[in-house]
Amino acid sequence: MDPFKNMQEWKKNMDRFFGEEFWNEFEGILKPPIPQVNMYQSDNEIICICNIPGIDDGKKIDVLIDYASIQIRGEMNVHPDYGGHLIQEEILQGAFDRTLELPFPVRSDKYHADYQNGLLIIHLYRLITKESNKRKVPIKIK
């Protein structure tokens, strides 16, 4: 017997009892954030690999860079309408909007992104500010 077979009906009853906003508090626990992201850091570069299946047009994804954060938003549709009813769904889909904090500020004038085999790969480069290049000049007293 499948314990999750009647989960949708149970959720509908809970929605009626508690209200639809009740689930917002549990969203991160019940449904992991999408897209799934792996982030890699080197001295001067960050590579974000985002699992976003079903994209056939790069204009369907927005990537916004803001100093030390990146926002990724769009919509994943992993299958066309096959007809019939869905009996198992493990691949998360639908609209997403995710903001990630970066380990250091990045340049807004140098970056690139590629989409291949369901993965969005974003290369970001460290912002080197003038303050980080300051060097104390030793003074010799004669």
From TrEMBL:
- InterPro entries attached to this UniProt entry: A-crystallin/Hsp20_dom, HSP20-like_chaperone
Instruction: Identify the Pfam families for this entry.
Output: HSP20
Q: Which residues form the SHSP domain?
A: 25-142
Q: Which CDD domains match?
A: ACD_sHsps-like
Q: Which family does it belong to?
A: Belongs to the small heat shock protein (HSP20) family.
Q: What is this protein called?
A: HSP20 family protein
